[in-house]
Design goal:
It is built from seven helices and ten strands. The protein has about 230 residues and is of the alpha+beta class. It has one domain: Taq DNA Polymerase, Chain T, domain 4 (Up-down Bundle). α1 packs antiparallel against α2 and α2 crosses α4. One of its GO terms (cellular component) is chromosome.
């Protein structure tokens, strides 16, 4: 018997399947993806509108809150609100005055009721820079870290009809004492003008006297009073 001859042919390799073609998403999947994208865009648009409406509501509320304030004061307070800067407060909102003293304290403070109290000097600098950039007017700021308390000396006046130093007659948060002391620490409240004239003789310089009716007397002897009317030009 003849031996079998080995085949010289190379062993066959397993066939490699052709690369699969990328599958195309079904039309339904494409529609769902587009719908999801549209829903997200709509949600984002709604959030943007809601943010804009909230901002408009805030500005409208601020506009109402500071009606009657000087332009610069109003702009400074609105800037602080929109920038999230805490600690901005008007002098008019930090004091609580008994009803019978409201006229006297209002006259004593005058336009300073619209001074803006801030926590730090830097707050005042930033607000002033914003007012300059926008051409929005001027305001006076009272930084708590630099304001001087004023003279703490008591008025040595022993006359009937003298009610006392203004700072002792009103209520306020102790946090704001430096400001209140600076503004009203040298203001004496009296019942009327005859009392003011008597007290004037016993006071040293630097004092201001105000009556319950709203007359004002300086330590130099000047007297201001009369009736409140709307001033008009001639």
């Amino acid at each position: 018997m003849k031996p079998r001859r080995r085949s010289s042919a190379a062993p066959s390799r397993p066939s490699t399947p052709p690369p699969a073609l990328p599958s195309r998403p079904a039309p339904l999947d494409q529609s769902r993806a587009k719908r999801a994208g549209a829903d997200e865009a709509l949600a984002q648009a709604r959030r943007t509108v809601a943010d804009s409406e909230a901002r408009l509501e805030t500005l409208t509320r601020l506009q109402r809150s500071y009606a009657g304030a000087f332009a610069g004061v109003k702009a400074a307070m609105q800037w602080a609100e929109t920038q999230g800067r805490d600690g901005f407060v008007l002098v008019s909102s930090i004091i609580r005055t008994p009803a019978n003293l409201e006229t006297a304290i209002e006259v004593a403070l005058g336009s300073r009721l619209q001074n803006v109290v801030v926590e730090q000097w830097a707050d005042a600098e930033d607000a002033i820079a914003a007012l300059k950039r926008g051409g929005q007017g001027r305001a006076t700021f009272l930084p708590l870290d630099t304001i001087r308390r004023g003279d703490d000396r008591r008025a040595s006046v022993n006359i009937a009809g003298v009610l006392g130093v203004a700072t002792d007659l009103i209520d306020f948060d102790e946090h704001y004492r430096p400001v209140v002391q600076n503004l009203l620490g040298r203001t004496l409240v009296v019942e009327d003008l005859p009392t003011a004239r008597q007290a004037l003789r016993q006071l040293t310089g630097g004092w201001t006297l105000v009556t319950l009716a709203g007359e004002q007397v300086s330590s130099g002897g000047a007297v201001t009073g009369g009736a409140q009317v709307k001033e008009t030009g001639t």
